[in-house]
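Handout, section B. The chain below has 444 residues.
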Amino acid sequence: MAGANKTGWSVRNMLKVPDIRQKLFYTFLILIIVRLGAQVPVPGVSRDVFASWFQNQSAGAADLFDMMTGGSFSQMSIFALSITPYITSSIIMQLMTIIIPSLEEMQKDQDGREKMREYTFYLSIALAALQAAAMGIGFYRSGSLQTHSVGAMITVIVALLTGGMVLVFLGEMITKHGIGNGISIILLFNIIERMPQDTKTLYDTFMKGRNIVKQGLAFLVILAIIVLMIALVVMLQDAYVKIPVQNSSKVLGRRSVGSQGDHIPFKINSANVIPVIFASSLMSMPGLVVSFLNRSPGGIPGEILKVLNQSNWFNPSAMQYTVGAVIYALLVIAFAYFYTSITFNPQEVSERLKERGSFIPGHRPGKQTVEYLQQISSSTIFIGAVGLLIVAILPIVLSGLTGADVSVGGTSLIIIVGVIIETIRHIDSEVEERHLTGLLSNRN
């Protein structure tokens, strides 16, 4: 009861701040525009033909892409590209900062970060143009256009590119005038939009037509699995290792000051959801490309595509294709190590500690510290990757065994929980600036 009172009191604190109320209203208004735009069809595309094509696709890149677009892809609306080009460009720019020293220097000051955001935006335009062109050409070749002409194809490309850039603009407006990171909020909104459909799928698969006892049991099992997955995701988001740090003591007169204990927080899941998205996209992309080319390969190529397709994993009637899950697991772990290795530099951390006059107890500054940090990094990466795998692959296992096809799986759940926690913390920081208690704050 005390927890409930605290939460209610904190929400009232939040809502009684005029500035926060305005930001919440502005964010809500933008999200309504996003939802309305998702209903506007791309001119020139036969939605019936495309819907038929999409229904014939098995779970894979098409479903993953549709989930991230909030169903705009399956409906072929002007927002079909969603904010995925911007997300991809952000990841690419983050990786490029490790490769290009000048970009790494840019991130160290505010003006440089603003310049990096500009580069990310320009790169997202290029990626959106590339995706729109690929889709437009695919529609032209597959006969999905109402008018089979180059002009109609160009119209589709322009509409998709414009819709994608409008969404990026709306996301930036939320970031500037609303609550939280606009791109993340739109992505969260798109994923949540698919939940009612997934709820209906679960009901039809496990509860419809059964007696009240079986329905209740199925409901409790589904609820327990969802709660377990959410708890695991929250742990992955917040869990970190404290690396102890000791500050060197200084002698002032006859007193020795300093030598205070501190720590470096090292996240267990520092790569977040990126390894899962990379692995899923890499394995699903061949099937999506083949589908757009309107091809149906047989023989060994066809069998390889079935192995790469998540919908074929853990199917009791075709367990040989579950080898794809092993490949998927290895890719997730590999991408986790790869991403963390280029975003965490033990040598740089060691040098910063040395500059501050700090050290890790039991390890000499320099080589020993670098080796220790690398050891900690390797062990935590593996733990985080295994946690990601459990969350990501559990829905795939249940889907294969039961035949329940839901779009909101482990990947989307990681995104949902991460964005919600990030947004709540953002609101908390604004509330606490006004000497009030936030949702995640401790009230004495």
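Note. Strands lie at 240-247, 249-252, 255-258, 261-267, 358-359. Compare this with the example in section A.
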